[in-house]
Amino acid sequence: MSRPKVDTNGVDALTDAVLTASRLLVAISARSLAAVEETITLPQFRMLVLLDSRGAMKLTTIAELLDVNPSTATRMVDRLVMTEMIARQQNPAVRREVVIELTAEGRRVVRGVTRRRRAAIGRIVAKMSGDERRDLVQALTAFTEAGGEPSVTAADLGWI
């Protein structure tokens, strides 16, 4: 398949390419989430992933990382507590503080959704040449590092 020539050095061209790829990734995420758990929204799943990757944290920290108001984060936490995917615990270091942590059920959901998402993405990247895959790994690693997103590996997911 022939690809149109693109100014690959331009910020606008790269932004457009990332936006286009993000549509595909959001669709994969939505399908992966719906296949495992129909009761969680994508923003709620993002909260589960944050707790899975960074550990227990205060509600205000979660709200900041999700870029939502604390009241929005509180409503998300309330819903996820009802599903037993997260729990509120007293902070052992500062007893007057409450921290939010992922439960075994929440971890199960994150693993299942991530497994499905990984399989779908794997099918797509398998269609790319070796050089394209190598370049994509380098570009996406730089992109996620610039955005402050922790990397995910098979070891992080408990697969090796």
Can you characterise this structure?
This protein is mainly alpha-helical and 160 residues long. It has one domain (11-140): Orthogonal Bundle (Arc Repressor Mutant, subunit A), CATH 1.10.10. It is built from six helices and three strands. It has helices at 11-36, 42-54, 59-66, 70-82, 104-125, 130-147; strands spanning 57-58, 86-90, 98-102. The protein has a three-stranded antiparallel sheet. A hairpin with a 7-residue loop joins strand 2 and strand 3. Helix 1 (11-36) crosses helix 5 (104-125) and helix 3 (59-66) packs across helix 4 (70-82). The protein is elongated and about 60 Å long.
How would you concisely characterize the structure shown here?
The protein has about 160 residues and is mostly helical. The protein has helices spanning about 10-35, 40-55, 60-65, 70-80, 105-125, 130-145, and strands at about 55-60, 85-90, 100.
Please bin the fraction of helical residues.
55-70%
Question: What characterizes the major β-sheet?
Answer: 3 strands, antiparallel
Strand order of the biggest β-sheet: 1-3-2
Strand content: 5-15%
The DSSP helix count reads: 6
Order of helices and strands: HHEHHEEHH
CATH homologous superfamily heading: Winged helix-like DNA-binding domain superfamily/Winged helix DNA-binding domain
Q: Kindly report the average pLDDT value.
A: 86
Spans with pLDDT under 50 lasting ≥5 residues? Answer: none
CATH architect. name: Orthogonal Bundle
User: How many beta-strand runs?
Assistant: 3
CATH topology: Arc Repressor Mutant, subunit A
Rg calc = 18 Å
- Based on helices, strands and strand pairing, what is the structural class? mainly alpha
Shape: elongated
Task: Report how far apart the termini are.
Answer: 36 Å
Count of discrete structural domains: 1
CATH top level?
A: Mainly Alpha
